[in-house]
Design brief:
The protein is an all-alpha fold. Helix content is about 90%, strand content about 0%. The protein is built from 2 helices and no strands.
């Protein structure tokens, strides 16, 4: 395998890991933001903190629920990258 293909494969894998790591945080924040925005539009409440605090709580809850698995995903990726270093030197 050429080095260019090797590094492109690593970059693709890194982007996939980044998407998997951020999706459990961003998707609930997006959904809660849409719901809160609809409530704010229906009630004509335009206070920014009304939207910020619930989204902050949702993100905190998802970090509590999925934080360990996200860290394990990133740690496994990094471990795999460090194990590939000797292959690059040959």
């Amino acid at each position: 395998m050429e080095n260019g293909d090797y590094f492109i494969g690593i970059a693709q894998q890194a982007l996939w890991i980044a998407a998997l790591a951020t999706a459990p945080i961003l998707l609930p924040a997006l959904i809660s933001g849409i719901i809160i925005g609809m409530i704010q539009a229906a009630t004509s409440i335009n206070e920014p903190t009304v939207a910020f605090v619930p989204k902050l709580m949702v993100v905190g809850a998802t970090l509590v629920l999925f934080g360990g698995s996200i860290l394990m995903l990133i740690a496994d990726f990094m471990r795999e990258m460090f194990e590939r270093v000797p292959d690059l030197l040959n």
